[in-house]
Amino acid sequence: MPSLIETVRGTVRADECDQLGHMNVVYYTARMSDAYTQLLARVGMTAEFIAGRRMAFAAVRQEIDNLREVRAGDLIVFESGFVGLRPKGATIRHEMRNAETGDVAMRARIGLVNLDLERRRAAPIPAEIAARIQAMLGAGPDPDGDHHG
Fold first, then answer.
1. Of 86, 90, 99, 146, which shows the fewest CB atoms inside 10 Å?
2. Residue 146: pLDDT above 70?
3. Per the structure, how many domains does the chain have?
């Protein structure tokens, strides 16, 4: 399986918890968004790149498995990585773990399309970005069957 890198580390705050006492899914999504931004920057798709090239990835499919609860005070870590690459898109995976126990609390798989922001259409991923993504994929197959390019 392609390797995941740490993209977010933090503590679940009390104001992130719902009436059931565990982290509300809206905050899972907010932390996932932070992890996504860190992952894209790692391959060169920074805010400067997006503004200059007028292209960015857009999430078009999300599959999220909530596996365990996390509560206020729990230490959490997100690990993220690319698990698939296509000429105009990619697939990423996020895992949120309880940093103390190592238990996976949430796993997400997100399909991305590279979007030309002027034309609002799918566009080929720039070669330098695709090369960095390919390097992150590693040699192992994705257990969910995505293609590596």
1. 99
2. no
3. 1
